[in-house]
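Much of our argument rests on the idea that a fold can be written as discrete symbols. Part of our work consisted of pairing the sequence of a single chain with a tokenised description of its backbone. We regard such an encoding as a compact summary of how the chain folds. The amino acid sequence and the backbone structure tokens for this protein are reproduced below.
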Amino acid sequence: DGTQLVLNTDTAIDVRFDALARAVVLHAGEIHIGTAQDRATPARPFLVRSSNGIVRALGTHFSVRHGGTLLAPRTLVSVSQGAVEVLPAKAPQAVRLVNAGQQGSFDDLGVSPLAPLAPHAGAWLRGVLIAERMPLGEVLEQVGRYRHGVIRCDPALAAMPVDGIFQLNDTDRILALLQHSLPIRMTRRTRYWISVDAA
């Protein structure tokens, strides 16, 4: 239908277009969507479904990331243009409108308070991770999505703030830069297992 869809690394989706709706099911990872006007009559809504509920596009450019943990998944929505409606799976009455320049997350039961869109929310579309006082644990989690194996971080270090601009196509260089600029030590137990501890 002319809609543009960009998948981040480590992402799994299903596309389900039928006579009633244009739907993308986000199983894992992150997508960015630029919706097109539907030429069908009547026009079909554009929906993104995650395990937490539905995001309904209202003519827009937006990103949806499925995250959290296995036992407590959350879905993050970031809107750069237009607006979306968020409908939590078990509380559709808690529908929330998210406008351009806003972001928020939701689980099955409700939507978090909305916040201004993070300044570099779409940097991954350019292959870049921009960290501004980002916790080390979150940086390593993002880097881990772009490489095979496991990166374990000492919980005592997870809140350490990180600043920098990192090219996501070279994760070994990112890890080397982090070790060089922070009081941490990275131990490679195997090619696919890295432990991050205090230096």
About this structure: Residues 68 and 74 are 5 Å apart (CA to CA). The two ends are 53 Å apart (CA to CA). The mean pLDDT is 94.
